[in-house]
Model the fold of this input.
Amino acid sequence: MPTNEFEIKYRSICRNIVNRNLSKAFALLKELELSVHKSEISDRINRLLETYNQMLHYTFTGINDPKQAEVYRKMQTDLLALADKLHRDILIENHSLTISAEQKLIEKQIIRNEAGIQQYTRQISEFPKNDTNNLRKQKVSDLFTLIWLSDNLSDNDIEILQKYSKSSKMLVHERCLIVSALTISTFRYFDERKIRALFDLYHTKNSEVKNRAFIGLVLVLYVYNERIHIYKNIESQMKMINETAFFSENMEHIVLQMIKTRETEKISDKLRNDIIPEIEKFKPKIEDKLNLDNILSDNLIEDKNPDWEEIFEDAPDLLNKMAEYSQMQLEGSDIFMSAFSMLKNFPFFNRISNWFLPFYADNHDIIKSIESQDSTFEPEVFFAGLERSVYMCNSDKYSFCLNIGMMPAGQRKMITELFKMEAESMDEINETDSKIDGRLHDRQIMTRYIQDLYRFFKIHPLRNEIFDIFDEKLDIYNTLFFKTTGNDSIILRKAAEMLFIKEYYTDAVDAFLLIDISEKNAAGIYEKIGFSYQKQKRFTEALEYYNKAELYGSKSQWLIKKIAFCYRKILNFEKALHYYRKTEMEQPDNLHVQANIAHCLLSLEKYDEALKYYFKVEYFDPENKLVMRPLAWCSFLTNKLDSAEKYYQKLINSENNAFDLINFGHVLLAKNNKSAAVENYIKARKILGLIKLIENIQDDTKYLTKAGISETDIDLLIDYLTIKK
Done:
């Protein structure tokens, strides 16, 4: 079975199970089972079908079963588990790239069935916490891989993970890795127990673990949103954490941060194509004049550096661009992806768990990478400063350290001094900000962790062979998990506004339409929905919401002009003219409005009126060459042939436009200057070709006859142009 057909059928099975159409699901399961011919799968399908048939029989023979709903839900979860297993078996049978890569990984890291979660956690706890031989790290890495590549965990596995995650025998960063392993494992294979473990880790007191678990839950419950309501335990857990202050305070940040991840590639492209080339032009000046100590300070955001203004006097936009990126950095946008994507080739990143490892200063891997005889370098100062830095994700911090280890001593010393100052500055800023907003620390952890996840899914060598959460729409605000929160309308509005600002207009519409629109906020929301539809060139829908905004009291000239514009786009020129006239009353000197009134009058064949408006535009904007084209055409249609000839002559002298040549030919033909008309038609023929030329002349027949040219003369003209060399 082709992969696409197989995936479509698998999704259809899951959809039918979730939507309670079990008969259809059974039929599709039987079809899919033929792809693997496994008796175990076939037997499970038949047993479940028999149970379902008995359930149907009892229901319609008058036998009351007080646990019917519970039995039905169990049937759904069993069928989903079977569908997932069948899906996995077929992938293996077809030697998919994903399975192939995972099998190689298992062989490489020697993860064997006989070494389970219990053995690994026990072995980890037996090694000293400061093990410099990396034996403990290797076991943690193996545990990470085992969890990641396990389809299902047992109840015993979950109990062990819960026990060790709360034990002092397991370090904070090791618990964080368990969270990440559970998260990406659930992406690859659904298991209710893994989600249960994430809920348990969410309830820990450590902020690093708790915040990662929260993000893991949000993303996992997003991926499996359609089926989650079937699992009673998950539903009850969701309701429980939705009642906590932590949930309501931080869900907003995750929703908005996920929207920002869409900007990462745009930011990277902009840096590569915009700022970096500009900086390269001025590199000698930068090296001579730029004070590196101030680059990472907050002065860039608050005030312009006078030195920079001097340096970039030949590139006035560059300073503003750099200030813009610094502001984006402060707001949580991922501006380092481009720079650090090239620094993930160190052996450190061969261990997959290290992509998710929180940065901590006494990590022996990075200490060892910067070992040196250079007494001027102070690694403890550098690591401490980097650990406190909130503007770089954990993965990039490790890349930075490993890269620093390859630098000459002089550069290392400079970096140390820079980060010493930066660390002191960050301490002051964080202390101040934390007093203002106690949630800041949680949000910083979440932002960095989301960026760590992004790097793994976008840069890791397996990126094309594993499910990428960041390829999804990530409309978390549209999930069951999100909808159970009490203040979703506030977050929804912010999400919709961010999508709108970032110009994701399709998603902005979806988000705005989820908001409970009141009379107070209706006009503004309807305007933005209308504008979003307009940007998608869906002018009829745009008008629907623009008109609603008008109905709710919006009287802005902006809205009236948008309504007029959309009516013009759907060719309702009468309505468009009506709204442009309304704007003209308020803005009589607005040449844009004058021009659009003229366009509507032209389309309505009111050429004399249109001509007056075009003359007005020309008078007040004499440098506007484009207005000459409609002026020439209206002059021709109102029999002002000398005026039309004057305008077309100017147009042709400045631009060799085929349609201007054709229309000039029409004017000359109406003036009975046939030889000159033919010259212009032949010039147009060289540009458009004979067929297009003839089509244009035939389309203009009604205008030519109105100008006094007979249909016979038009036919003769076409024949002459056909044979004329």
In short: The radius of gyration is 34 Å. Residues 409-436 form the longest helix (28 residues). Residues 3-94 form one domain.
